[in-house]
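Morning run. Coffee first, then this:
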Amino acid sequence: MKDSEKEIISTLKYVSHMKPEFMLSEIQNYITSEMSVEQIYSIVKPFLYELEIDAIPEGPDIRLMLAPPATVMQLTEEEVKRTEIFLRSAVVSAKLQTIIEQYIGKKTGKQWDDPLVLDRIRKAVVGQKNEYWKESVSRRISYEKGYNVLGYLAYHFPVYFVQFQHILYDMALAGILKTRMKILDIGTGPGTVPLAIADFYKRLEGRKAEIYCVELYEENIEAFNSLVPQYAPDPIAIHEPIRSDVRAIKPESLPENIDLMVFSNVLNEIKDITIEQKVDIVLKLAQRLASDGSMLVIEPADRTNSVELRRLSIALREAGLGIYAPCSFIWGSGCSLEGCWSFEQKQDINPTLLMRKLAECDEPYRFINTDIKYSYSIIRKDGLTKECYRVPPKAKFARFSKIGMHKDKRINVVCSLMSGDLGDERYSLYKLCDGTSRKAVYTVLPWHNVTEDNSIIKRANYGEILELYNVLVNYNKEKDAYNLLLSKGSTVCRAGDEKEH
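And here it is:
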């Protein structure tokens, strides 16, 4: 930081201690350099969040005032409406699409839709997909080359951008976000998470966030610096990424009291690293988490990465952290299902113009990526859980650990809904978990058996606790799993609801 910048920050601190409210132009009277209000604001803006100062433009000047203390974020009806309208037919905004297209032009020295540029992006996308599906020991996902980043922006970015806003919205509705948030994004890439946060906050009023990031690859940092500052609104304070390997980050180099720490599609990409080593990384960084903060780990929904994430979550729980969601331990015991595969699914996004241009080729299906499926885990230090339900001591529910004893019988169970509908038009199929499973358990609802009493399962949320009454236990030998058949005489209700059975 230059001496003139240090002088301005020091002056800002002094004046804010003297006055709870003042105009930014007043700073001009205290500094030796001649600077405009706009120049001063560009220097102080990154520090306003940490200093707990709000800035409100007033004509050519800016009013500065002490910010109110952070409280639980409660979305207004209008904020909910705006967010749900967006998520129902989500697409990367026209402004952000233009910023990305301009970056491609700047990076390649050609128009973003030049046939040669598009062809090279296609090759990068195909190369990344081929590398991704290799066995974990031999795969190497890297963003050291410019076209690798452009391929990511074209194919992966739009889905991850909308996906993260779904997660933020769910966290806001659950009451675990604050009106002022300090956020750390580990492995930020070209800034997917910060851009998603910026887009989400554009539909909110009066909410603030300060975002810190860590990124290894120079090409990603270059893209970040071209995209994120252009798109982030004033209430979002963006810090330039810290360049570091995830495995080498020193906690003391990071801010304290982080409200939300994000690992989005990053831990699975680190080559030759064990679950134990991942646990060590997360535990080390958890030192910087606020006592009521959340750590969010997101991975792709394929079986390998989803199972790996569940193993990591359980290992973190055994190491002393708590799982907020989606897992819940309704019987008060630890999870014993080694190969748990569970993921969330949301509505498809609309493809970007760049994605559609890439699809103008002989194999268009290779370049259209619109479905949102992901596995996630929210980890906390304070023991808070999204679902607080515990099975009452004398409740007459069968545990999944004992389900083999009830083969071909009708039973009552209580469990979490751990997938969207995995079936087809004739049979709805849902993954279930009660925290005691030794084998996978699903519930099957044939279309001709749907009634008012059992159809709630079609509307229930991922991770929600449900009670299923009068379900028939079938064993699927081919899949080595159990199916609970919902018939017309079966009932499904939310756990704890008052209902006669």
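The chain has a mean pLDDT of 91. Good start to the day.
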